[in-house]
């Protein structure tokens, strides 16, 4: 089996061309700049040139892109976006319009065009070709991204995310329950579904699997051979954007916690991990502190 595996985070895009039968240390690996940063820098560059913008492409991780768009508009410059691209800023197009963005599928005259694509598969293929490797013969593509989901009007995307996590874990509290194979991806995961479209454009009918970055981080922790015989386990991943922790016993999630890394200190993280381990960390406490929330599963 040959698989193209990508993890798209706030800081980097991590790529692995996995081949069964080959030691993973010998498989092609790349750590590349985050596409979000690339898109943000391009918008900022065009803002400095006092040019109007037309942004098309896929729904990608927003963050810096949304801030760059706001700064562009604050300089009395125009921003036009296709619906798919606009969802990168907000999960509600009416909210995007209130920022001053014009939603259109047609490129207005005298605009600089930016195409949003966080998979960057054509560029990765070009790099691989230089080393006699290719994506043309892969058996599957797996992508890990952060997708909060598009909540109903009036609901916070943080509360919506944790509600969906709770429902998923109550039904099946294994990490594998969060793994989706296209096209069976919930409609409210706009970013994940857009990634499938981007993958199809380059890879055709190759099977595509999606997993949230928080879940893939925990699954990666769980694969450490040094803890394979330990139970229960407290798994923690501190990423550039988010920190996630989970109590796992007998391969089942018993508790889950997620917060923004830049809002945590060592003391605060230790406090949350202790409460998580004692099964008395509430979703509301984390949410009020600016985090996503917490879930405890009582079997």
Secondary structure layout plus pairing:
Elements: E1 2-8, E2 12-19, E3 28-33, H1 35-48, E4 52-57, H2 64-74, E5 79-81, H3 83-86, H4 93-98, E6 102-103, E7 111-116, H5 121-129, E8 140-145, H6 157-171, E9 180-181, H7 190-203, E10 208-212, H8 213-222, E11 233-238, E12 242-249, E13 252-260, H9 266-277, H10 283-288, E14 293-296
Parallel strand pairs: 1-8, 4-5, 4-7, 5-6, 8-10
Antiparallel strand pairs: 1-2, 2-3, 9-10, 11-12, 12-13, 13-14
DSSP strand tally: 14
| Whole-angstrom Rg | 20 Å
Which stretches are low in confidence, meaning pLDDT under 50 for 5 or more residues running? none
Widest beta sheet: strand line-up: 3-2-1-8-10-9
Question: What number is the mean pLDDT?
Answer: 94
Percentage of residues assigned to helices = 25-40%
The oligomeric state is single chain
H/E element string?
Answer: EEEHEHEHHEEHEHEHEHEEEHHE
């Amino acid at each position: 089996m040959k698989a193209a595996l990508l993890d798209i985070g706030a800081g980097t895009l991590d790529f692995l061309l996995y081949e069964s039968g080959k030691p993973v240390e010998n498989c092609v690996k790349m750590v590349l700049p985050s596409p979000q940063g690339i898109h943000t820098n391009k918008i900022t560059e065009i803002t400095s040139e006092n040019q109007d913008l037309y942004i098309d492409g896929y729904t990608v991780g927003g963050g810096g892109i949304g801030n760059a768009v706001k700064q562009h508009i604050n300089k009395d410059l125009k921003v036009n976006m296709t619906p798919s691209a606009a969802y990168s800023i907000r999960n509600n197009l009416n909210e995007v319009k209130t920022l001053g963005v014009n939603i259109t599928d047609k490129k207005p005259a005298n605009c600089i065009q930016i195409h949003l694509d966080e998979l960057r598969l054509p560029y990765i293929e070009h790099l691989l070709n230089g080393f006699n490797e290719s994506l043309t013969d892969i058996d599957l593509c797996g992508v890990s991204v952060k997708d909060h989901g598009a909540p109903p009007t009036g609901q916070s995307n943080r509360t919506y995310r944790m509600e969906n996590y709770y429902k998923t874990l109550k039904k099946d509290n294994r990490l594998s329950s969060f793994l989706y194979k296209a096209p069976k991806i919930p409609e409210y995961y706009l970013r994940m579904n857009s990634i499938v479209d981007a993958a199809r454009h380059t890879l055709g009918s190759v099977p595509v699997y999606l997993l949230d970055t928080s879940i893939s981080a925990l699954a990666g922790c769980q694969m450490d051979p040094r803890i394979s015989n330990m139970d229960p386990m407290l798994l923690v991943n501190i990423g550039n954007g988010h920190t996630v922790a989970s109590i796992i016993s007998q391969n089942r999630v018993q508790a889950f916690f997620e917060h923004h890394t830049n809002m945590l200190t060592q003391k605060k993280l230790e406090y949350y991990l202790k409460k998580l381990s004692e099964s008395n960390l509430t979703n509301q406490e984390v949410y009020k502190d600016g985090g996503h929330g917490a879930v405890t599963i009582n079997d």
